[in-house]
Specification:
This protein is an alpha+beta fold. The chain is built from seven helices and ten strands. A five-stranded antiparallel sheet has the order 4-1-3-2-10. The model has no long low-confidence stretch (mean pLDDT 92).
Protein backbone atom coordinates (compact mmCIF):
# COMPACT_ATOMS: atom_id res chain seq x y z
CA UNK A 1 0.00 0.00 0.00
CA UNK A 2 1.24 3.49 -0.92
CA UNK A 3 -0.18 6.57 0.80
CA UNK A 4 -0.12 10.24 -0.07
CA UNK A 5 -0.76 12.80 2.67
CA UNK A 6 -1.45 16.47 1.99
CA UNK A 7 -2.28 19.21 4.45
CA UNK A 8 -2.56 22.95 4.87
CA UNK A 9 -4.65 25.65 6.41
CA UNK A 10 -7.98 25.84 4.67
CA UNK A 11 -9.63 29.14 3.81
CA UNK A 12 -13.01 27.80 2.69
CA UNK A 13 -13.96 24.48 4.26
CA UNK A 14 -17.28 24.23 2.43
CA UNK A 15 -15.61 24.80 -0.96
CA UNK A 16 -12.94 22.25 -0.13
CA UNK A 17 -15.55 19.62 0.71
CA UNK A 18 -17.49 20.32 -2.50
CA UNK A 19 -14.29 19.93 -4.52
CA UNK A 20 -13.42 16.67 -2.77
CA UNK A 21 -16.91 15.35 -3.39
CA UNK A 22 -16.54 16.25 -7.07
CA UNK A 23 -13.33 14.18 -7.18
CA UNK A 24 -15.29 11.28 -5.73
CA UNK A 25 -18.09 11.62 -8.26
CA UNK A 26 -16.14 12.51 -11.40
CA UNK A 27 -12.50 11.48 -11.09
CA UNK A 28 -12.48 8.46 -8.79
CA UNK A 29 -13.86 6.06 -11.45
CA UNK A 30 -10.69 6.62 -13.51
CA UNK A 31 -8.25 6.34 -10.60
CA UNK A 32 -6.82 2.87 -11.10
CA UNK A 33 -5.44 1.33 -7.90
CA UNK A 34 -7.18 3.83 -5.62
CA UNK A 35 -8.13 2.14 -2.33
CA UNK A 36 -9.75 4.96 -0.41
CA UNK A 37 -9.22 8.32 1.24
CA UNK A 38 -9.84 10.16 4.48
CA UNK A 39 -10.09 13.94 4.55
CA UNK A 40 -11.18 16.40 7.19
CA UNK A 41 -10.55 19.76 8.80
CA UNK A 42 -9.20 19.96 12.35
CA UNK A 43 -10.17 22.58 14.92
CA UNK A 44 -7.18 24.76 14.03
CA UNK A 45 -8.28 24.93 10.39
CA UNK A 46 -5.79 22.39 9.08
CA UNK A 47 -7.17 20.24 6.28
CA UNK A 48 -5.56 16.80 6.09
CA UNK A 49 -6.08 14.36 3.25
CA UNK A 50 -4.86 10.77 3.29
CA UNK A 51 -5.17 8.90 -0.02
CA UNK A 52 -4.41 5.18 -0.23
CA UNK A 53 -3.30 3.38 -3.40
CA UNK A 54 -2.26 -0.19 -4.04
CA UNK A 55 1.15 0.94 -5.32
CA UNK A 56 3.35 3.97 -5.98
CA UNK A 57 2.89 3.43 -9.71
CA UNK A 58 -0.90 3.70 -9.33
CA UNK A 59 -0.57 6.90 -7.31
CA UNK A 60 1.82 8.46 -9.81
CA UNK A 61 -0.43 7.47 -12.71
CA UNK A 62 -3.34 9.21 -10.98
CA UNK A 63 -1.26 12.32 -10.31
CA UNK A 64 -0.30 12.42 -13.98
CA UNK A 65 -3.83 12.51 -15.32
CA UNK A 66 -4.71 15.86 -16.97
CA UNK A 67 -8.08 15.92 -15.23
CA UNK A 68 -6.29 15.47 -11.89
CA UNK A 69 -4.20 18.57 -12.60
CA UNK A 70 -7.32 20.58 -13.38
CA UNK A 71 -9.01 19.31 -10.23
CA UNK A 72 -6.02 20.09 -8.01
CA UNK A 73 -5.80 23.65 -9.39
CA UNK A 74 -9.36 24.10 -8.16
CA UNK A 75 -8.65 22.38 -4.83
CA UNK A 76 -5.67 24.66 -4.13
CA UNK A 77 -7.99 27.66 -4.09
CA UNK A 78 -9.51 26.35 -0.86
CA UNK A 79 -6.21 26.69 1.01
CA UNK A 80 -4.80 29.74 2.73
CA UNK A 81 -1.07 29.38 2.08
CA UNK A 82 1.19 26.49 1.24
CA UNK A 83 0.18 22.85 1.10
CA UNK A 84 2.66 20.21 2.27
CA UNK A 85 2.89 16.67 0.96
CA UNK A 86 4.22 13.40 2.34
CA UNK A 87 4.58 10.02 0.68
CA UNK A 88 4.50 6.80 2.68
CA UNK A 89 5.59 3.57 1.03
CA UNK A 90 5.67 1.64 4.31
CA UNK A 91 2.17 1.57 5.77
CA UNK A 92 0.71 -0.96 8.17
CA UNK A 93 -2.93 -1.59 8.95
CA UNK A 94 -4.14 -2.02 12.53
CA UNK A 95 -7.41 -3.81 13.27
CA UNK A 96 -8.14 -4.08 9.56
CA UNK A 97 -7.11 -0.54 8.63
CA UNK A 98 -9.37 2.42 7.87
CA UNK A 99 -13.14 2.23 8.24
CA UNK A 100 -15.84 4.13 6.39
CA UNK A 101 -18.09 3.53 9.41
CA UNK A 102 -16.10 6.04 11.47
CA UNK A 103 -17.68 9.25 12.72
CA UNK A 104 -14.47 10.57 14.26
CA UNK A 105 -10.90 10.30 12.98
CA UNK A 106 -7.71 11.24 14.78
CA UNK A 107 -4.47 11.92 12.92
CA UNK A 108 -1.18 11.87 14.83
CA UNK A 109 2.03 13.22 13.36
CA UNK A 110 5.50 13.23 14.87
CA UNK A 111 9.05 11.95 14.75
CA UNK A 112 10.32 8.90 16.63
CA UNK A 113 13.85 7.99 17.73
CA UNK A 114 12.98 4.34 17.06
CA UNK A 115 10.10 4.15 14.63
CA UNK A 116 10.51 0.42 14.00
CA UNK A 117 10.16 -0.40 17.70
CA UNK A 118 7.22 1.99 18.12
CA UNK A 119 5.37 0.34 15.28
CA UNK A 120 6.23 -3.14 16.49
CA UNK A 121 4.60 -2.38 19.83
CA UNK A 122 1.54 -0.79 18.25
CA UNK A 123 0.90 -3.77 15.98
CA UNK A 124 1.69 -6.62 18.38
CA UNK A 125 -1.27 -6.30 20.76
CA UNK A 126 -4.25 -6.05 18.44
CA UNK A 127 -6.35 -8.56 20.38
CA UNK A 128 -5.85 -6.66 23.63
CA UNK A 129 -6.52 -3.34 21.89
CA UNK A 130 -9.74 -4.65 20.38
CA UNK A 131 -10.90 -6.03 23.72
CA UNK A 132 -10.04 -2.90 25.69
CA UNK A 133 -10.89 -0.25 23.10
CA UNK A 134 -13.84 -1.58 21.05
CA UNK A 135 -14.58 1.96 19.81
CA UNK A 136 -11.38 1.83 17.73
CA UNK A 137 -12.61 0.65 14.32
CA UNK A 138 -9.13 0.47 12.79
CA UNK A 139 -6.02 2.42 11.97
CA UNK A 140 -3.12 2.92 9.61
CA UNK A 141 0.50 3.51 10.67
CA UNK A 142 2.65 5.30 8.09
CA UNK A 143 6.41 5.76 7.82
CA UNK A 144 7.02 9.15 6.20
CA UNK A 145 10.82 8.83 6.19
CA UNK A 146 13.58 10.17 8.44
CA UNK A 147 11.81 8.98 11.57
CA UNK A 148 8.62 10.87 10.73
CA UNK A 149 5.30 9.10 11.05
CA UNK A 150 1.61 9.67 10.43
CA UNK A 151 -0.86 7.50 12.33
CA UNK A 152 -4.58 7.61 11.56
CA UNK A 153 -7.17 5.99 13.84
CA UNK A 154 -10.87 5.60 13.15
CA UNK A 155 -13.50 5.69 15.91
CA UNK A 156 -17.19 4.99 16.22
CA UNK A 157 -17.65 8.42 17.81
CA UNK A 158 -15.63 11.14 19.51
CA UNK A 159 -17.45 10.59 22.82
CA UNK A 160 -16.49 6.92 22.82
CA UNK A 161 -12.92 7.79 21.85
CA UNK A 162 -12.60 10.20 24.79
CA UNK A 163 -14.00 7.59 27.17
CA UNK A 164 -11.59 5.01 25.82
CA UNK A 165 -8.63 7.33 26.39
CA UNK A 166 -9.26 7.11 30.13
CA UNK A 167 -9.07 3.31 30.26
CA UNK A 168 -6.01 1.49 31.55
CA UNK A 169 -4.39 -1.24 29.50
CA UNK A 170 -4.05 -4.71 31.05
CA UNK A 171 -1.14 -5.03 33.48
CA UNK A 172 0.69 -7.56 31.29
CA UNK A 173 1.08 -5.12 28.37
CA UNK A 174 0.97 -1.74 30.14
CA UNK A 175 4.74 -1.24 30.36
CA UNK A 176 5.22 -2.03 26.69
CA UNK A 177 2.37 0.27 25.65
CA UNK A 178 3.89 3.07 27.72
CA UNK A 179 7.23 2.44 26.00
CA UNK A 180 5.54 2.75 22.63
CA UNK A 181 3.85 6.00 23.62
CA UNK A 182 7.15 7.43 24.83
CA UNK A 183 8.73 6.55 21.48
CA UNK A 184 6.12 8.68 19.72
CA UNK A 185 7.99 11.78 20.95
CA UNK A 186 6.26 15.13 20.56
CA UNK A 187 2.96 14.48 18.80
CA UNK A 188 0.71 16.83 16.82
CA UNK A 189 -2.92 15.73 17.06
CA UNK A 190 -5.54 16.59 14.44
CA UNK A 191 -9.12 15.68 15.31
CA UNK A 192 -11.38 15.29 12.28
CA UNK A 193 -14.95 15.58 13.56
CA UNK A 194 -16.65 15.52 10.15
CA UNK A 195 -14.42 13.24 8.11
CA UNK A 196 -15.10 12.68 4.43
CA UNK A 197 -14.47 8.98 3.84
CA UNK A 198 -14.26 7.86 0.22
CA UNK A 199 -13.93 4.31 -1.08
CA UNK A 200 -14.29 2.87 -4.60
Amino acid sequence: MFIQVFQGKVADEAAARRTLERWRDELMPGATGFLGSTTGVATDGTLIGVARFDSRDAAMANSGRPEQDVWWAEMEKSFDGDVTFMECEDARAVLGGGSDDAHFVQVMEGRSDDLARMRQIMTSHEDELHAGRPEVLGGVLMDAGDGRYVNVFYFASEAEARTGEQLDYPEEIRAEIEEGMALMGEVSYFDLREPLLISP
